[in-house]
Amino acid sequence: MSATATANSSASSTAPSTAKSSSFAPKRFIKRPDDKALKEEVESLKNEIKKLDLQNQELNVQISKSQIDQKVMDKRNQLQQDLKDLISKQSAVKNERNAINDQIKSIDSQLKKRIAEIQTQTSKNNFKNVGEIDARINYLDGLIDAGNLKLADERRFVKEMSSLRKLRKDFGGIEKTQELIDQDKTKIADLKKKLAGIQNKELQAQFESIQKELDEINDSNKSIISKRNELYDKRSEIKKQKDEKYDQIRKLRADFDEKFANFKQQLTEEKKKRDEEYKQRLVDEKQQRRKEQAEKQLAEASIPAFTEEINSIHNLLSYFDPSYVKPAPKGYSTNGASTATTSSENARKVEFPEDFVVLKKEQESFFAGSKSKKSKQHKKKSKNFTVAPDVVVSLSDLSIPFPTKEEEVEGTVKILKETLVALEEKQAEQTKINIEKAKARIAKLEAEEDAAEEQEAAADAVVAEEEETTDA
Prior knowledge:
The protein starts with a helix and ends with a helix. By secondary structure, the protein is an all-alpha fold. The protein contains 11 helices and no strands.
């Protein structure tokens, strides 16, 4: 591949990269919320609040002037305190009466239960107490003692007496229950007596008397009180209006804060987008450079091996043998430059024999091709055999000894031709080896770069996660 072709290939490969880089969308303008309008509205509301404060101060002055006589106020305050005390006492009395009533209800409920128990037991027979049972037992006992009864009646009466004695034992519990019932009745009577002694009439009379006196004071100062109440209402209304103004200010600031937060979020998203685009552009450029470098390395490796050495040998053969004709290229282009003439950077120091003469003036060009007859005759007449310095350098690069006299030229030409044949035989194989080595180097570099990109991506992911955690 020629240098011109390589340059054209590089130019064509960089064109897509430039086009891709310029395809990114233009930076989106994100407008910042206008806090000037907010400040103006807030300032306007604050001025309105100041005006309301002035009105409130005027009302306070009017309220301070609309005062009732201090003695009357003291009397009024005292009466109000007396009312509070009476209300507290009435509440205590009410609580006490409620407590007694609750006790009466509790005892009465217990009393009714006990009476029901006795009625349940006495309803099974005709006896209502132990006395009646004893009277019946004594009566039956008298009949038996008289001895006038039939044997069957006597047995029946004895059996009845036995049942009555058993019933009498059961009635012993009824007597205890009856005693408890009597006690409950006594308790209820005592509680009702106590309840009758706790009356609220006196407290109610005092309450009505004090309330009447308060009403008289209020009636006599009704106009002043009415005016004060009106002023109080106005002051309450001003307070309500101020609260509304403050609410408006808070709402304006909250709305602005929401807009500003949205603005910051959009900035963050735009920055993130730009960063991602920038990273993608770097990746694309890096991939393009890697592609160009791979193409360049493959292009260089695809140049037939030993091209420089073979060209150098052809030029040396033309120099030593003017009749030598350089063969046509074998289907490929060389680098177009004569490699026999090396630059000062690649030139190396060559040691010459002691009797070797180097011509420094009127030196024939290494690329001159065939020599003239006059030149040959001049060389034959020359006392010392001379070789141009660049020819010596080219032979040294090929590791071929340079001739020190005319007789050694034929041997040098022979070595050059043998070397040429050997290089041409190995050229295809070595070119293939060079291409494989270039591909291996490219694959290794790509693997290393891919691993580095993965590590960088992992590090970016960790940083992004930490930033999200910090924001949350």
